[in-house]
Amino acid sequence: MKVLITGGAGYIGSHAIREFQDAGHKVVVLDDLSKGHRAAVPKDVPFVSGDLADAEAQKRALDGVEAVIHFAAFLSVGESVAQPAKYYQNNTVKALSLLNAMVERGIKRFIFSSTCATYGTPVHVPIDENHPQDPINPYGASKRAFERALLDYSRAGLVRAIVLRYFNAAGCHPDGSLGEDHNPEEHIIPLAIDAALGRRPGLTIFGDDYDTPDGTCIRDYIHVTDLGQAHVLAMNALESGEGYRYYNLGSENGYSVREVIKAVEKVSGLTVPASMGPRRPGDPPRLVASAKKVRSELGWSPKHSDLETIIDTALRWRRDHPQGWRLS
Q1: Is 88 a catalytic residue?
Q2: Active-site entry in 87, 88, 119, 139
Q3: What are the boundaries of each domain within the chain?
Q4: Is 21 exposed, middle or buried (0-12, 13-18, 19+ CB in 10 A)?
Q5: What architecture (CATH level 2) is domain 2-169+221-249?
Q6: Fewest CB atoms within 10 A around its CB: which of 3, 91, 141, 185?
């Protein structure tokens, strides 16, 4: 099957390309390179450089495509609080433009890269798919708005969609060929690794007064390769079953910021210099997934998502690619 991967030059999208190719599918990528890296896309993969809502880019990217895997989005919680219009415009409005272009061409299969941020502050943990969706930041709200649109399009018979709500994507490809390279970097594991390697002055912990055992935020980390594999399973599942489904993707284990720092120190054998800072707006205290539904219905099981494996793969990438994709 020929699939379009939007945001394929990005962190998760580039790993998904590998999984779809390994499963025997043909891939085309649409990316405006505002966040991604052209070098992250294999040279044998057709690449369309353009905006998600640009009609000409859509035309070239969707030619002959049978399914769309939609990753292209902005994802900084803090930035979304400061610039909400940017997030609704890109994550909701432009995504709807892509969806409409699909519908016009009769392409019905759609997999959406969503987020646990659509749940907001948890009322119970672990978080299952029946948890209320009440996002507390524009990032989560912009994703939630598009989820609702997908549901309505599905009810109208226009698409068959699966929504995958990620918890914290982390790690790099186990063979060392693909990695994480954001500018600016906001994810704790690469930040802690860079601090340990002396590439940044230190790591700031945003708040130690949360209602958690050590006062720092708790998150569920899922290896990016496991995420990519879940998308392949989701596409296969679109051949049958309901027209709209949604699943959590997480390891079902929660680690605090302090625990992540200790794990980075253990794996690297180095010290992570860290200092305490104020809370960030929009950060819930604890996010841990229940992934029972995706395990049961799609047969998905994470293979690389224990914390030390995640950190080990990330550490090897960052050691081998000190400049990321730019000079690799």
Answers
A1: no
A2: 139
A3: 2-169+221-249
A4: middle
A5: 3-Layer(aba) Sandwich (3.40)
A6: 185
